[in-house]
Structure prediction request, 286 residues.
Amino acid sequence: MPTGGRLAFRSDTTLVTGQVEMQPESSPLDITCDGQLHGSVPLARQEHFHFADLPPGDKLIELWLPQYGEFRLRSLKLNSGSSVDPHVNSQPRWTIYGSSITQCRTAKRPTETWPAIVARGHGLNLTCLGYGGNCHLDPMVARLIRNHPADVLSMKIGINVYNQNSLNLRTFRSAIIGFIQIVRERHPLAPFAILSPIYSDWRENTPNQVGFTVRAMREEVRATVDTLRAHGDLHLCYVDGLTILGPEHAGLLADKLHPDAEGYRVLGHNFLNLVMNKLLPSGGRR
Prediction:
C-alpha cells in the first residue's frame, strides 16, 4: 500500500475518467492540475472515477493514488483528441522512510498525508517509504534508499521497534548507525533528517518487553546523530518528535498512537516549517 504514489502526465484534456478493480476499503483518489488540488473521489467499493471541468490548456495532471487500500487501474480515458505527453519531474527528490505514521492511513486524502503536505508545500519529488508496522531499520531497506536517487532524506524511527520489541537499548543505536552508513555510501552529502518518535501517550514512560521506553528511544536517536556528526557527518540533523507533534496534541491521536486527519495536517505543517524549510532552504516549487 504505497503512499505518495502518483500517475503524472501533461495534457490539455478537461476530463479524466477511469476504471479500477473494486476494493472493500480504500482511501480517496485525488487529482491536481499544475500542483493545485482540483478534486477528490471516494474509491471504496467503486469501480469508476470521474474528474470533469479541469482547467483548459496544457497542464501537469497528477493522480494521487490512495495511501490505504490496494489500487489496480484498469483503464484511463481523456477527452477525444486531447494531447498526452510524459512529465519529467525536475524537482528536488525527497525520500522518506517510516512506519504507519508515515503511511498515514487516517489522513483525509492522499494529498493530505503529512509527507504529501511537506512535498507539495516545498516543491519536492516525493518517494515515501511508509511501512505500516514494519519500520525496523532493515538493511535491505537501507540498500533500497541508498540505490534510489535523492537530494534530501529523512526517516522517522522508533515506534514499530517499541511496539514489537524488535531492538533493545543494546542494539537500537548500532542499528541506526548501520542504516545511515549504508545510505551514506551513495548519498554522502544529502541533507538527512532523523526524526525520533512523536508523542505516544502511555508509551512515553512505560517499558516494553525489552525494557525500552519511547522517551529513552528519543535519547538514543539524539545520541546517535550527535555521534555521527562528531565523526564528520555534518549534513545529518536530529529532529525531536515532540517538536513536531507533542503532548499538547494528544487529542489528535485517535487511538493514542496514530494521528487523526487533523493530526496529520499539523504534523505536516510543523515538519515543513520547522524542518524542511531549514534543511533545504531553496525548494523546487513549480
The mean pLDDT is 96. DSSP finds eight helices and 13 strands in the chain. Helices lie at 100-103, 114-122, 139-147, 159-164, 172-184, 214-230, 241-244, 261-279.
